[in-house]
Amino acid sequence: MPLSGTTADVQPFYGYVDTTEDALRLIEAARRGVLPRVTRRFNELERRSMIRSGAVFVFSVEESGIKRWTEGLTWSQSRISGNFLIYREVADRNILRSSHQVSDSSDGSQSGHPVESHITLKPNGLIKKASTITVKINGSDHHLISYFTQEDVHSGRLHRPTSRSDLMALKIPAELLQSANFRYPLKLDGQRIGISQL
Description:
This protein is α+β, with helices and mostly antiparallel strands. It has helices at 20-32, 44-50, 61-64, 93-98, 150-155, 165-168, 174-179, and strands at 56-60, 79-81, 84-88, 127-131, 135-137, 140-148, 186-189, 192-195.
């Protein structure tokens, strides 16, 4: 299995990552073994079954060997939203490949200069939300990638980490916050983390 510690008691989080706090909480849960981590690249069968709306993946660069996250889908140009990059699934892969309008990485790098008006988004296609935060834990860089559709979010089918008591019981340690490189800084409010400009 490409996920560490996946058992009846340790299952991947399925839902929606809305805020930076959500992302940090899931990264901390994966670090503690409450949620599994991705330990290697997915093969083609795993990609087809696991890359879907509601899927959330946390991986360590050193543990997984994944320096650049790819899953074989075709995406629009990235858009910055707080501490995240947002990509939308594109319908016609061949046209985009020939005009250099594709990014399949989580770090926002593109080849060429995308022209958004020329792309065709896939109807009810996936949206990829990649955290721009790099969290360094014990010398290892951790990243988070999530997938969803607008329909699933608006219908309430996907729930945030706040819906799970085991995740909300986790306290995000100060060293995790200090090790993260935030595009938009966080404000600390007692024991709770408030998100600024997100």
